[in-house]
Amino acid sequence: MTEQTGFPLPSQIADVPGAENWRSMYQYFTRFQPDDDKRFWFYNSMHFPEPMPAFDTITGEVPYQAIGANTARLFVLPTTLGIEHRIVNGRIYITANPVLDPAEIERRAVEFGPRAGYYFENWDALYEGWKNRLRALIAEIESIDVPQLPEWEPADVVFGAVGIAQNHYLQENFHRVLALYSKMWHHHTEMLMLGYGAYVVFFQFCQQAFPEISDQTIGRMVAGIDVIMYRPDDELKGLANLAVELGVDDLFTQGCVAAEVLAALEGRGEAGARWLDAFGKARDPWFHVSSGDGFYHHHLSWNDDLTVPFTALPGYVAAVKAGGIAPRPTEQLTADRERIANGYRDLLGSDDEKAAFDQMLGLCRLVFPFVEDHKFYCEHWFTTRFFQKVKAFGALLAAQGVIAATDDVFHLHHTEIDQALADVSLAWAAGTPPLGAGHFQPIIAERKAMIEVLKGWSPPPALGPVPEALNDPAVRMLWGITQERVASWLNPDPDEVVGVAASSGVVEGIARVLHDVSEMSQLREGEILVVPVTAPSWAPVFAKIKAAVSDIGGSMSHAAIVAREYGLPAVVGTGDATKRIRTGDKIRVDGDRGRVRVLS
After folding, report:
1. Can you give the pLDDT at residue 1?
2. In the chain, how many H helices and how many E strands?
3. Considering only CA atoms, which of 77, 70, 187, 170 is closest in space to residue 127?
């Protein structure tokens, strides 16, 4: 077999038959340019594993604005600028812009030191302030009204001399929704990039001081963390315990339907009422967790679709009745991290090196919980409310006849929604029907059809020339993009699936390949989970599985972090595990070497 030496250039990617007009869905600045053929791009399937509906591209557009602003302009990280993104056939590719000139790195470091130092020195207080700001943004977006445009304004608008009719607020309030989403992402990256930065510095120190050390061993030195991203799963465990305590556990059986269970509980007297009360308290805010990772409108929250929690509850109820739900092995992980850290510290030759090691490791442990905690506030709680509010504007446009169905709003770019709202505002003011139906409905129909076609396209893992060095630590840790990984994409090992050694241990077991969290009920106790990528809503499965394998991710991805916290072997960033492994295969997962072998 001829060895492959490079990836296709962006300009060589052909349109998918049946979706040749895909460019019409996206803004001009998301298209590949001629000079982009000279650069290396990789498919960001961690965050964008599906083709992007037109509105959902805001989840690439706004985050990359905020990431670059915080990284390059606010904190002035010395070795990296921002991330650029492009869309081809509905898929988002990205590239990181490094700073390579030593003089420029030094110039930036002078600015970075005091700015980052202020945050690191005041981390706990600043983090409390950060949480307050996020809660305020969430309360603000929840409070935004979508005007309903009555035939006449209420009389108190006149007698109160308000002087502004409801149609004015159509666009103002929609703009507020978008502005709040942008503010959220600026806050999202405000402390996150510093959290990654602290880990990157420690990571690089360890690599230089201990050349043989693995990425996951470094990660184990900050394991044993307690983060609120586990809270939704912990709420489910609490509800399972309560169901057994109150004697209503018989309702929670495999395949149970949420609406039927909730209706049955209403007929169970005080016990049912107590469970329902606890359930209601858990839902806000802990069920505002997306079934994905907060980047697609159709990845609904648990509150929008109770299927995921009611798929997990029967397993937890069964575990309680069998003697109790096994806790995460946090104490063991804490003991292990101290043993590992002390062992490596003892290898250092001088007191200065040991002091530097202690300082960097201490800073990592201080800031690291934020790396997971921010997800709940940002990608889940806030973003759930954001998509719900946009959907409410869709309901208005559907009621006005501009679009055929509420969710069709997500097949319009946010600038097009703005146009549609202007149309509705003018029509209401003039006393005539809006004109948008004839314009937008054919566009939406074509886009929905193209999205379905584009789902069948297999995007290359990367585009453009392979660089001589891939040395961006954040890209390595979050996405698992390394020289070795790129080489394995070009020329896969025929005998083993190769990935990132994310969590130690070697186990054998039966594979269960799942592509979506809604398939969670198919998973059986003791199987090995094989998925494209995990999100926090996958947390209930980690109590059932022996190991985890994912297509996407690096040593600091969500799947890697959670696997270490549960003490499970994991290999992430394989690129193609879900294509090469089938449900029912017996496989061996080597979380120490980053290898997965199909045994039979």
Report:
1. 45
2. 19, 12
3. 187
d(CA 96, CA 99): 10
Sheet bearing 586-590, strands edge to edge: 497-498, 595-598, 586-590, 506-513, 528-531, 547-550, 570-572, 500-503
**Among the listed residues 555, 506, 550, the one whose alpha carbon sits nearest the alpha carbon of residue 530:** 550
Helix (H, G, I), strand (E, B) or coil at 183: helix
Residue 548 sits at φ, ψ, to 5 deg, of: -135, 140
Four-CA torsion 470, 475, 480, 484, nearest 10 degrees: 0
Residue owning tokens 């109150």 = 246
How far, in Å, CA of 552 to CA of 573, rounded? 4
Query: pTM above 0.85?
Result: yes
Q: 153: buried, middle or exposed (CB in 10 Å: 19+, 13-18, 0-12)?
A: middle
Residues 6+ apart with CB under 8 A from 438: none
| DSSP conformational letter for 72 | I
* Chain centroid, CA 62 distance in Å: 14
Residue pLDDT, tens place only, 153-207:
888 888 889 888 889 999 999 999 999 999 999 999 999 888 888 888 898 899 9
Cis bond upstream, residue 285 (ω within 30)? yes
Dihedrals φ, ψ of 514, to 5°?
A: -125, 145
CATH for 496-598 (3.40.50.720, 3.30.70.260, 3.50.30.10, 2.160.10.10)? 3.50.30.10
Contact yes or no for 591/503 (Cβ under 8 A): yes
Nearest-angstrom CA–CA distance, 475 and 96? 8
Tell me the pLDDT of the chain averaged across its residues. 92
pLDDT tens-place string over residues 525-574: 899 999 988 877 778 888 889 999 998 888 777 788 888 888 899 999 88
Q: What is the DSSP letter of 290?
A: B
**Triad 320, 241, 333: Cα angle to 5°:** 70
CB-CB contact of 554 with 203 (8 Å) = no
Q: What angle do CA 81, 84, 88 make, to 5 degrees?
A: 165
Is residue 570 within 8 Å of residue 591, measured between CB atoms? yes
Q: Scanning the structure block, which residue is given the tokens 């094989």? A: 530
Taking the C-alpha atoms of residue 344 and residue 356, their distance in angstroms, rounded to an integer, is: 13
The values of phi and psi at residue 150, to 5°, are -70, 170
The whole-angstrom separation of Cα 428 and Cα 420 is: 12
Residue 549 to residue 586: CA distance in whole angstroms: 13
